[in-house]
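Re: that chain you flagged

S.,

Sorry for the slow reply, it's been a week of failed gels. I finally had a moment to sit down with the sequence you sent. For the record, here it is as I used it:
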Amino acid sequence: MKTTFLLLLSTLILHANSFASSGPDAILGEWLSQEKDGKISIYKQGDKFYGKIIWSKTPGKKDVNNPDSKLRSRDIVNTVILQDFKFTGSAWEDGKIYDPKSGKTYDCILKVKDNNKVLDIRGYVGVPMFGRTSTWTRS
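Prediction finished late last night. Pasting the structure tokens below so you have them in one place:
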């Protein structure tokens, strides 16, 4: 009984610490993409969150797959790829992510983990269950 109580107490403390460290601004800062080929700066405008590429492993790379032919000659660096996210208490939702590798835009949910050192990006079409998760690390 005593062991069960201590285990339950430890779990509650761990969850309380992870919740306290993941307030609305916990996502702000610089993140390294899963492939380590780009760095994204997440920032806040009003009550929404955005992210733009601030570094690329391939300098001068263009947005050649953009569906808008007028944007295909722009540099990938400084491209805003995360748009209109709102903090919902445990995640950042209702936003979109643009994938410059494919030129496609997806609905997206963002969640911080591991004391704000890891960011899970779930991109999907229609239903999150049918999406794909990418993991970024704090830079």
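What I noticed first: Confidence is low (pLDDT under 50) at residues 1-20.

Talk soon,
D.
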